[in-house]
Amino acid sequence: MKKVVFPLQPVYDKIGVRFKQARATALFPEGDAEDPRGTVDIEYTLPGKEGEVERVRYDYLINATGPQLRFGMTEGLGPDGHSLSVCTAEHAVETAAKLREIISELRAGQKKTLVVGMGHGTCTCEGAAFEYVFNVEHELREAGVRDNARVVFLTNEAALGDFGVGGMVFRQEGYETTSKQWTESLFRERGVEPILGAHVEKVEEGRVFFEQLDGSRHQLDFDFAMLLPPFGGQPIAAYDREGKEITSELFAPSGFMKVDADYTPKPYEEWKASDWPRTCQSAAYDNIWAVGIAFAPPHQISQPRKSPNGTVITPSPPRTGQPSGEMGKAAALSIVDRIKHGDAAKPHEASMAKLAAACVASAGAGLRSGTAASMVMMPIVPDKEKYPTGRDLRYTRGEIGLGGHWTKLMLHYMFIHKAKARPGWQFIPE
To answer: Are 363 and 403 in contact (CB under 8 A)?
Structure first.
Protein backbone atom coordinates (compact mmCIF):
# COMPACT_ATOMS: atom_id res chain seq x y z
CA MET A 1 0.00 0.00 0.00
CA LYS A 2 2.96 2.32 0.67
CA LYS A 3 3.71 2.29 -3.07
CA VAL A 4 0.38 3.85 -4.02
CA VAL A 5 -0.83 5.82 -0.98
CA PHE A 6 0.73 9.19 -0.12
CA PRO A 7 -0.36 12.44 1.60
CA LEU A 8 -1.99 14.98 -0.69
CA GLN A 9 -1.38 18.13 1.36
CA PRO A 10 2.32 18.50 0.34
CA VAL A 11 1.41 17.96 -3.31
CA TYR A 12 -1.22 20.68 -3.34
CA ASP A 13 0.94 23.04 -1.27
CA LYS A 14 3.60 22.72 -3.95
CA ILE A 15 1.30 23.80 -6.78
CA GLY A 16 -0.59 26.47 -4.88
CA VAL A 17 -3.90 24.69 -4.34
CA ARG A 18 -5.85 25.15 -1.09
CA PHE A 19 -6.63 21.59 -0.07
CA LYS A 20 -9.52 20.73 2.25
CA GLN A 21 -9.75 17.07 3.23
CA ALA A 22 -13.49 16.86 3.59
CA ARG A 23 -16.66 15.50 2.05
CA ALA A 24 -19.34 17.60 0.39
CA THR A 25 -22.74 17.37 2.07
CA ALA A 26 -24.85 20.07 0.40
CA LEU A 27 -24.75 22.26 -2.68
CA PHE A 28 -26.25 25.75 -3.04
CA PRO A 29 -25.69 26.62 -6.73
CA GLU A 30 -27.49 29.99 -6.36
CA GLY A 31 -25.75 30.88 -3.11
CA ASP A 32 -27.53 31.70 0.13
CA ALA A 33 -29.11 34.73 1.80
CA GLU A 34 -25.68 36.23 2.51
CA ASP A 35 -23.97 35.80 -0.86
CA PRO A 36 -25.22 34.95 -4.40
CA ARG A 37 -22.09 32.98 -5.21
CA GLY A 38 -22.43 29.22 -5.32
CA THR A 39 -21.71 27.41 -2.08
CA VAL A 40 -20.72 23.92 -1.01
CA ASP A 41 -21.15 22.73 2.57
CA ILE A 42 -18.36 20.39 3.62
CA GLU A 43 -17.60 18.18 6.61
CA TYR A 44 -13.94 17.56 7.38
CA THR A 45 -12.51 14.03 7.43
CA LEU A 46 -8.98 15.20 8.24
CA PRO A 47 -7.73 13.61 11.48
CA GLY A 48 -8.05 16.19 14.21
CA LYS A 49 -10.82 18.06 12.39
CA GLU A 50 -13.30 15.22 11.86
CA GLY A 51 -16.87 16.42 11.91
CA GLU A 52 -16.09 20.13 11.61
CA VAL A 53 -18.24 21.84 8.98
CA GLU A 54 -17.56 24.77 6.68
CA ARG A 55 -19.31 26.65 3.88
CA VAL A 56 -17.07 27.14 0.83
CA ARG A 57 -17.93 29.75 -1.83
CA TYR A 58 -17.18 29.13 -5.49
CA ASP A 59 -17.34 30.75 -8.91
CA TYR A 60 -16.92 27.45 -10.75
CA LEU A 61 -17.42 23.92 -9.47
CA ILE A 62 -16.20 20.55 -10.77
CA ASN A 63 -17.92 17.52 -9.27
CA ALA A 64 -15.26 14.80 -9.44
CA THR A 65 -16.19 12.84 -6.34
CA GLY A 66 -15.91 9.34 -7.71
CA PRO A 67 -18.49 6.71 -6.73
CA GLN A 68 -20.25 5.75 -3.54
CA LEU A 69 -19.68 2.03 -2.94
CA ARG A 70 -23.18 0.65 -2.50
CA PHE A 71 -22.53 -2.68 -0.80
CA GLY A 72 -25.92 -2.37 0.86
CA MET A 73 -27.74 -3.06 -2.40
CA THR A 74 -26.88 -6.75 -1.98
CA GLU A 75 -27.50 -8.47 1.35
CA GLY A 76 -24.27 -9.61 2.96
CA LEU A 77 -22.00 -8.02 0.34
CA GLY A 78 -18.69 -6.39 1.22
CA PRO A 79 -16.07 -6.31 3.98
CA ASP A 80 -18.75 -5.65 6.60
CA GLY A 81 -20.61 -8.69 5.30
CA HIS A 82 -19.31 -11.96 3.92
CA SER A 83 -17.25 -11.01 0.85
CA LEU A 84 -14.09 -9.07 0.08
CA SER A 85 -13.36 -5.98 -2.00
CA VAL A 86 -10.45 -4.20 -3.70
CA CYS A 87 -12.22 -0.85 -4.09
CA THR A 88 -10.09 1.01 -1.53
CA ALA A 89 -6.48 0.60 -0.43
CA GLU A 90 -7.63 -0.77 2.92
CA HIS A 91 -9.97 -3.26 1.23
CA ALA A 92 -7.16 -4.43 -1.06
CA VAL A 93 -4.77 -5.01 1.86
CA GLU A 94 -7.40 -7.05 3.71
CA THR A 95 -8.17 -9.08 0.59
CA ALA A 96 -4.48 -9.75 -0.12
CA ALA A 97 -4.03 -11.07 3.42
CA LYS A 98 -7.00 -13.41 2.98
CA LEU A 99 -5.59 -14.65 -0.32
CA ARG A 100 -2.29 -15.48 1.39
CA GLU A 101 -4.21 -17.51 3.98
CA ILE A 102 -5.99 -19.42 1.22
CA ILE A 103 -2.69 -20.16 -0.53
CA SER A 104 -1.24 -21.51 2.73
CA GLU A 105 -4.23 -23.84 3.10
CA LEU A 106 -3.90 -24.93 -0.53
CA ARG A 107 -0.24 -25.78 0.10
CA ALA A 108 -1.42 -28.02 2.92
CA GLY A 109 -3.38 -30.01 0.34
CA GLN A 110 -6.84 -28.58 0.93
CA LYS A 111 -9.20 -27.93 -1.97
CA LYS A 112 -10.57 -24.39 -2.25
CA THR A 113 -13.07 -22.46 -4.37
CA LEU A 114 -12.24 -18.84 -5.18
CA VAL A 115 -14.95 -16.59 -6.65
CA VAL A 116 -14.22 -13.21 -8.22
CA GLY A 117 -16.69 -10.93 -9.94
CA MET A 118 -19.64 -8.63 -9.63
CA GLY A 119 -21.81 -8.39 -6.53
CA HIS A 120 -24.94 -7.06 -8.24
CA GLY A 121 -26.67 -7.25 -11.62
CA THR A 122 -26.04 -3.56 -12.38
CA CYS A 123 -22.35 -3.34 -11.44
CA THR A 124 -19.76 -1.62 -13.59
CA CYS A 125 -15.96 -2.13 -13.61
CA GLU A 126 -16.09 -5.58 -15.20
CA GLY A 127 -12.55 -4.89 -16.41
CA ALA A 128 -11.31 -4.55 -12.84
CA ALA A 129 -12.85 -7.89 -11.85
CA PHE A 130 -11.38 -9.45 -15.02
CA GLU A 131 -7.97 -8.10 -14.07
CA TYR A 132 -8.22 -9.32 -10.49
CA VAL A 133 -9.36 -12.85 -11.30
CA PHE A 134 -6.38 -13.42 -13.59
CA ASN A 135 -3.97 -11.95 -11.05
CA VAL A 136 -5.35 -14.38 -8.49
CA GLU A 137 -5.03 -17.26 -10.94
CA HIS A 138 -1.43 -16.22 -11.68
CA GLU A 139 -0.56 -16.09 -7.96
CA LEU A 140 -1.97 -19.59 -7.51
CA ARG A 141 0.17 -20.91 -10.35
CA GLU A 142 3.28 -19.14 -9.08
CA ALA A 143 2.67 -20.69 -5.64
CA GLY A 144 2.35 -24.15 -7.19
CA VAL A 145 -1.17 -24.71 -5.85
CA ARG A 146 -3.31 -24.11 -8.94
CA ASP A 147 -4.41 -27.75 -9.21
CA ASN A 148 -6.09 -27.59 -5.81
CA ALA A 149 -8.07 -24.44 -6.59
CA ARG A 150 -11.31 -23.90 -8.46
CA VAL A 151 -11.40 -20.32 -9.81
CA VAL A 152 -14.82 -18.92 -10.78
CA PHE A 153 -15.62 -15.61 -12.49
CA LEU A 154 -19.14 -14.43 -11.59
CA THR A 155 -20.26 -11.63 -13.91
CA ASN A 156 -23.36 -9.72 -14.96
CA GLU A 157 -22.12 -9.66 -18.56
CA ALA A 158 -24.27 -11.64 -20.99
CA ALA A 159 -21.07 -12.69 -22.76
CA LEU A 160 -17.40 -12.61 -21.90
CA GLY A 161 -15.61 -9.62 -23.37
CA ASP A 162 -18.58 -7.29 -23.01
CA PHE A 163 -16.77 -5.18 -20.35
CA GLY A 164 -19.80 -2.90 -20.04
CA VAL A 165 -19.13 -1.40 -23.49
CA GLY A 166 -21.10 -3.88 -25.57
CA GLY A 167 -18.00 -5.80 -26.59
CA MET A 168 -15.55 -4.93 -29.34
CA VAL A 169 -14.57 -6.05 -32.81
CA PHE A 170 -10.81 -6.26 -33.46
CA ARG A 171 -9.02 -6.49 -36.78
CA GLN A 172 -5.80 -8.46 -36.49
CA GLU A 173 -3.57 -9.69 -39.29
CA GLY A 174 -6.29 -9.05 -41.85
CA TYR A 175 -9.00 -10.91 -39.91
CA GLU A 176 -11.81 -9.67 -37.71
CA THR A 177 -12.33 -11.19 -34.29
CA THR A 178 -14.37 -10.14 -31.28
CA SER A 179 -13.52 -9.39 -27.68
CA LYS A 180 -15.86 -12.30 -26.84
CA GLN A 181 -13.71 -14.81 -28.75
CA TRP A 182 -10.51 -13.22 -27.48
CA THR A 183 -11.63 -13.31 -23.83
CA GLU A 184 -13.14 -16.81 -24.02
CA SER A 185 -9.79 -18.07 -25.29
CA LEU A 186 -7.99 -16.62 -22.27
CA PHE A 187 -10.51 -18.15 -19.85
CA ARG A 188 -10.05 -21.58 -21.45
CA GLU A 189 -6.26 -21.25 -21.39
CA ARG A 190 -6.18 -20.34 -17.69
CA GLY A 191 -8.94 -22.72 -16.59
CA VAL A 192 -11.13 -19.99 -15.10
CA GLU A 193 -14.84 -20.91 -14.99
CA PRO A 194 -17.19 -18.11 -16.07
CA ILE A 195 -20.76 -17.78 -14.80
CA LEU A 196 -22.49 -15.28 -17.09
CA GLY A 197 -25.52 -13.04 -16.79
CA ALA A 198 -25.56 -13.25 -12.99
CA HIS A 199 -27.16 -11.01 -10.37
CA VAL A 200 -26.02 -11.70 -6.81
CA GLU A 201 -29.06 -11.73 -4.53
CA LYS A 202 -27.38 -12.52 -1.21
CA VAL A 203 -24.03 -13.46 0.27
CA GLU A 204 -23.80 -15.63 3.36
CA GLU A 205 -20.73 -16.95 5.14
CA GLY A 206 -19.10 -19.16 2.49
CA ARG A 207 -22.06 -19.10 0.10
CA VAL A 208 -23.32 -16.78 -2.66
CA PHE A 209 -26.87 -16.86 -4.04
CA PHE A 210 -27.49 -15.56 -7.55
CA GLU A 211 -30.04 -15.35 -10.34
CA GLN A 212 -29.16 -15.68 -14.03
CA LEU A 213 -30.65 -14.12 -17.14
CA ASP A 214 -32.76 -17.20 -17.84
CA GLY A 215 -34.49 -16.69 -14.48
CA SER A 216 -32.86 -19.67 -12.78
CA ARG A 217 -31.52 -19.30 -9.25
CA HIS A 218 -28.37 -20.94 -7.92
CA GLN A 219 -26.00 -21.00 -4.99
CA LEU A 220 -22.26 -21.48 -4.93
CA ASP A 221 -20.10 -22.34 -1.94
CA PHE A 222 -16.79 -20.51 -1.69
CA ASP A 223 -13.70 -20.16 0.46
CA PHE A 224 -12.70 -16.77 -0.96
CA ALA A 225 -15.00 -14.26 -2.67
CA MET A 226 -13.99 -10.84 -4.01
CA LEU A 227 -17.19 -9.27 -5.35
CA LEU A 228 -17.38 -5.66 -6.51
CA PRO A 229 -20.32 -3.51 -5.37
CA PRO A 230 -22.63 -1.42 -7.54
CA PHE A 231 -21.78 2.27 -7.69
CA GLY A 232 -23.88 5.34 -7.05
CA GLY A 233 -23.28 9.06 -6.81
CA GLN A 234 -22.18 10.59 -3.55
CA PRO A 235 -25.17 11.63 -1.38
CA ILE A 236 -25.09 15.41 -1.87
CA ALA A 237 -28.31 17.39 -1.44
CA ALA A 238 -28.93 20.57 -3.45
CA TYR A 239 -30.88 23.68 -2.42
CA ASP A 240 -31.89 26.96 -4.03
CA ARG A 241 -31.12 30.33 -2.44
CA GLU A 242 -34.25 30.21 -0.28
CA GLY A 243 -33.33 26.79 1.07
CA LYS A 244 -35.83 24.79 -1.00
CA GLU A 245 -34.49 21.38 -1.97
CA ILE A 246 -33.70 21.04 -5.71
CA THR A 247 -31.68 17.82 -5.59
CA SER A 248 -33.76 16.19 -8.34
CA GLU A 249 -33.00 19.10 -10.68
CA LEU A 250 -29.25 18.53 -10.45
CA PHE A 251 -28.96 14.82 -9.77
CA ALA A 252 -30.44 11.62 -11.17
CA PRO A 253 -32.03 9.14 -8.71
CA SER A 254 -28.71 7.26 -8.81
CA GLY A 255 -26.99 10.28 -7.24
CA PHE A 256 -24.99 11.05 -10.37
CA MET A 257 -25.15 14.63 -11.66
CA LYS A 258 -27.21 15.45 -14.76
CA VAL A 259 -25.14 17.04 -17.51
CA ASP A 260 -25.54 17.91 -21.21
CA ALA A 261 -26.70 14.43 -22.20
CA ASP A 262 -29.99 13.37 -23.79
CA TYR A 263 -31.87 11.66 -20.97
CA THR A 264 -35.02 11.03 -23.02
CA PRO A 265 -36.10 7.42 -22.36
CA LYS A 266 -35.80 5.43 -25.58
CA PRO A 267 -35.45 1.78 -26.63
CA TYR A 268 -32.01 0.27 -27.20
CA GLU A 269 -32.52 0.32 -30.97
CA GLU A 270 -32.79 4.12 -30.88
CA TRP A 271 -29.72 4.80 -28.74
CA LYS A 272 -27.22 7.10 -30.42
CA ALA A 273 -23.68 8.22 -29.71
CA SER A 274 -25.00 11.78 -29.67
CA ASP A 275 -27.02 10.95 -26.52
CA TRP A 276 -23.77 11.20 -24.55
CA PRO A 277 -22.54 14.48 -23.02
CA ARG A 278 -19.98 16.57 -24.86
CA THR A 279 -18.93 19.15 -22.25
CA CYS A 280 -20.13 17.51 -19.00
CA GLN A 281 -21.61 20.84 -17.90
CA SER A 282 -24.53 20.66 -15.51
CA ALA A 283 -27.89 20.68 -17.25
CA ALA A 284 -29.11 23.28 -14.74
CA TYR A 285 -26.10 25.54 -14.05
CA ASP A 286 -23.42 26.28 -16.64
CA ASN A 287 -20.71 27.00 -14.05
CA ILE A 288 -20.87 23.42 -12.73
CA TRP A 289 -19.30 20.34 -14.34
CA ALA A 290 -19.45 16.65 -13.41
CA VAL A 291 -16.62 14.47 -14.68
CA GLY A 292 -15.66 10.82 -14.53
CA ILE A 293 -18.13 8.56 -12.80
CA ALA A 294 -19.78 11.59 -11.13
CA PHE A 295 -21.88 12.37 -14.22
CA ALA A 296 -25.16 10.59 -14.93
CA PRO A 297 -24.95 8.56 -18.15
CA PRO A 298 -27.95 8.76 -20.49
CA HIS A 299 -28.22 4.96 -20.61
CA GLN A 300 -26.05 1.87 -20.62
CA ILE A 301 -23.62 1.08 -23.43
CA SER A 302 -24.25 -2.67 -23.31
CA GLN A 303 -27.63 -3.92 -24.47
CA PRO A 304 -30.06 -3.80 -21.51
CA ARG A 305 -31.37 -7.15 -20.32
CA LYS A 306 -33.78 -8.47 -17.70
CA SER A 307 -34.46 -11.95 -16.43
CA PRO A 308 -38.00 -13.39 -16.77
CA ASN A 309 -38.41 -12.38 -13.11
CA GLY A 310 -37.90 -8.72 -14.05
CA THR A 311 -34.41 -8.47 -12.54
CA VAL A 312 -32.14 -6.05 -14.40
CA ILE A 313 -28.89 -7.83 -15.21
CA THR A 314 -26.86 -5.43 -17.33
CA PRO A 315 -23.47 -3.80 -16.78
CA SER A 316 -23.58 -0.09 -16.04
CA PRO A 317 -21.37 2.03 -18.31
CA PRO A 318 -17.75 2.33 -17.18
CA ARG A 319 -16.17 5.77 -16.83
CA THR A 320 -12.56 4.72 -16.43
CA GLY A 321 -9.38 6.64 -15.65
CA GLN A 322 -8.34 7.83 -19.09
CA PRO A 323 -11.66 9.34 -20.23
CA SER A 324 -12.25 10.69 -16.72
CA GLY A 325 -8.94 12.52 -16.93
CA GLU A 326 -9.85 13.90 -20.35
CA MET A 327 -13.18 15.17 -19.01
CA GLY A 328 -11.50 16.81 -16.05
CA LYS A 329 -8.96 18.48 -18.31
CA ALA A 330 -11.71 19.75 -20.64
CA ALA A 331 -13.63 21.19 -17.69
CA ALA A 332 -10.50 22.91 -16.36
CA LEU A 333 -9.70 24.42 -19.76
CA SER A 334 -13.30 25.61 -20.09
CA ILE A 335 -12.97 27.43 -16.77
CA VAL A 336 -9.67 29.00 -17.88
CA ASP A 337 -11.35 30.31 -21.03
CA ARG A 338 -14.32 31.63 -19.04
CA ILE A 339 -11.96 33.54 -16.74
CA LYS A 340 -9.99 34.95 -19.68
CA HIS A 341 -12.78 35.64 -22.16
CA GLY A 342 -16.02 35.73 -20.20
CA ASP A 343 -19.04 33.47 -19.94
CA ALA A 344 -19.55 33.40 -23.72
CA ALA A 345 -16.34 31.38 -24.21
CA LYS A 346 -16.97 28.11 -26.01
CA PRO A 347 -16.61 25.14 -23.64
CA HIS A 348 -14.08 22.42 -24.35
CA GLU A 349 -15.46 18.98 -25.19
CA ALA A 350 -14.56 15.46 -24.09
CA SER A 351 -17.33 13.11 -25.21
CA MET A 352 -17.07 9.39 -24.62
CA ALA A 353 -18.70 9.05 -28.03
CA LYS A 354 -15.54 10.55 -29.56
CA LEU A 355 -12.77 9.75 -27.09
CA ALA A 356 -10.53 6.73 -27.47
CA ALA A 357 -9.54 4.70 -24.42
CA ALA A 358 -6.69 2.34 -23.69
CA CYS A 359 -6.98 -0.29 -20.97
CA VAL A 360 -4.08 -2.45 -19.81
CA ALA A 361 -5.46 -5.15 -17.52
CA SER A 362 -2.83 -7.06 -15.58
CA ALA A 363 -3.16 -10.82 -15.84
CA GLY A 364 -0.25 -11.61 -13.55
CA ALA A 365 2.78 -9.72 -12.22
CA GLY A 366 6.40 -10.62 -12.94
CA LEU A 367 9.15 -9.02 -15.01
CA ARG A 368 9.61 -12.28 -16.92
CA SER A 369 6.43 -14.25 -16.28
CA GLY A 370 3.88 -11.45 -16.10
CA THR A 371 1.20 -10.81 -18.69
CA ALA A 372 -1.39 -8.14 -19.35
CA ALA A 373 -4.36 -7.80 -21.67
CA SER A 374 -4.02 -4.56 -23.62
CA MET A 375 -7.13 -3.13 -25.27
CA VAL A 376 -7.68 0.07 -27.20
CA MET A 377 -11.06 1.25 -28.46
CA MET A 378 -12.11 4.24 -30.50
CA PRO A 379 -14.65 5.59 -29.60
CA ILE A 380 -15.68 4.31 -26.16
CA VAL A 381 -19.41 4.64 -26.89
CA PRO A 382 -20.14 2.87 -30.19
CA ASP A 383 -21.23 5.12 -33.06
CA LYS A 384 -23.03 2.83 -35.49
CA GLU A 385 -24.03 5.76 -37.67
CA LYS A 386 -20.35 6.37 -38.41
CA TYR A 387 -18.76 2.92 -38.15
CA PRO A 388 -20.33 -0.42 -39.26
CA THR A 389 -19.07 -2.19 -36.11
CA GLY A 390 -19.63 0.87 -33.92
CA ARG A 391 -15.91 1.63 -33.64
CA ASP A 392 -12.98 2.53 -35.86
CA LEU A 393 -11.22 -0.77 -36.53
CA ARG A 394 -7.94 1.04 -37.16
CA TYR A 395 -7.78 2.00 -33.49
CA THR A 396 -9.68 -0.84 -31.79
CA ARG A 397 -7.32 -3.66 -30.89
CA GLY A 398 -6.54 -6.28 -28.30
CA GLU A 399 -3.31 -8.09 -27.40
CA ILE A 400 -2.09 -10.13 -24.45
CA GLY A 401 1.44 -10.86 -23.38
CA LEU A 402 4.53 -9.82 -21.44
CA GLY A 403 4.76 -6.53 -23.34
CA GLY A 404 1.44 -5.48 -21.82
CA HIS A 405 2.80 -6.13 -18.33
CA TRP A 406 5.82 -3.92 -18.98
CA THR A 407 3.50 -1.22 -20.31
CA LYS A 408 1.34 -1.50 -17.19
CA LEU A 409 4.42 -1.20 -14.97
CA MET A 410 5.63 1.87 -16.86
CA LEU A 411 2.20 3.52 -16.64
CA HIS A 412 2.07 2.84 -12.90
CA TYR A 413 5.24 4.83 -12.24
CA MET A 414 4.31 7.56 -14.71
CA PHE A 415 0.92 8.18 -13.12
CA ILE A 416 2.34 8.17 -9.58
CA HIS A 417 4.89 10.74 -10.83
CA LYS A 418 2.04 12.81 -12.25
CA ALA A 419 -0.16 12.48 -9.17
CA LYS A 420 2.70 13.78 -7.02
CA ALA A 421 3.15 16.79 -9.36
CA ARG A 422 6.81 16.02 -9.86
CA PRO A 423 8.81 17.92 -12.51
CA GLY A 424 7.39 17.40 -16.00
CA TRP A 425 4.07 15.96 -14.77
CA GLN A 426 2.22 18.23 -17.22
CA PHE A 427 3.65 16.28 -20.17
CA ILE A 428 2.28 12.92 -19.04
CA PRO A 429 -1.01 12.28 -20.90
CA GLU A 430 -4.25 11.22 -19.29
So the answer is: no
